[in-house]
Amino acid sequence: MDDQLHLYNAFANHDLIAFEHVFRHYFPRLKKYASHFVSNPDEAEDLVQDTFVQIWNDSEKLNRDKNISALLFTVLRNRCINQLKRHIIEDKYVSTQIRFQSEELYHISFNHEDEYISVQEQLNKELDDLINSMPEKCAICFRMKWIDGMKIKEIAEKLDISTTMVDKHLSRGMKIAKEKVPSRHLLLLLVLHSL
Q1: Any alpha helices (H) in 36-67, and if so which ranges?
Q2: How many angstroms separate the CA atoms of 187 and 182, rounded?
Q3: pTM of this prediction exceeds 0.70
Q4: Which one is predicted more confidently, 100 or 51?
Q5: Domain ranges (residues) in the chain
């Protein structure tokens, strides 16, 4: 118990050495635990890191009667459950939007004087036009992320730029996309293109 009290006091005083000791000791077990909730190892790692950040930030309010291990696993469990809830809400939103957009697609008129263009060809053309309207680096990052399905880290490595720069290009690209395409159509455009 004295060790626990010492750790809590060290945390409350923002003792980096004590924090690092606890981090190194518990991180592998916590990551494995989080992996039971989420299948993506990067997401599990993020949840564990967020748990440590939360405990570090709330160190002065910690319940000193609780075992440090129990505290870490409890905070992580709650974060994992909240993450799962977010995934469920996002999945429901996306499926609802796809259903609405699919219904809209049935009402698209193909009364063009040109030859018949399939919906997929039309979507590809609209997406290409949208991406081509972006600044060069922005367009490259946007295409790699949303068309090629690459992760931000992969894009950064391929283009030899920082992940922060990739985020900035993607954010700018999304801003341009939202200005040019209504958000409900943009979602459909990106989702259907990836099918």
Answers
A1: 41-57
A2: 9
A3: no
A4: 51
A5: 2-86, 112-194
% of residues, the chain, pLDDT over 70: 70
- Report which secondary-structure segment, H or E, holds 152: helix 152-159
CA-to-CA separations, 29 to 24, 33, 34, 47, 73, in angstroms, rounded:
10, 6, 9, 13, 9
Structure tokens that stand for 123 in this block: 């979507």
Q: Give the mean model confidence (pLDDT) for residues 35-62.
A: 86
Which positions ≥6 away from 120 have C-beta within 8 Å? 192
CATH number at 112-194: 1.10.10.10
Per-residue pLDDT reduced to its tens digit, 135-157: 999 999 988 887 788 888 999 99
The b-or-e profile of 95-127 (16+ CB within 10 A means b, else e) is eebeeebeeeeeeeeeeeeeeeeeeeeebbebb
Residue 88: predicted pLDDT:
80
CATH code, 2-86: 1.10.1740.10
Record the tokens describing residue 151, joined without a space: 């992760």
Can you spell out the DSSP letters for 66-81? S-HHHHHHHHHHHHHH
Measured CA to CA in angstroms, residue 125 lies from 39, 120, 135, 147, 170 at distances of: 35, 9, 18, 13, 20
The C-alpha atoms of residue 179 and residue 177 are separated, in whole angstroms, by: 5
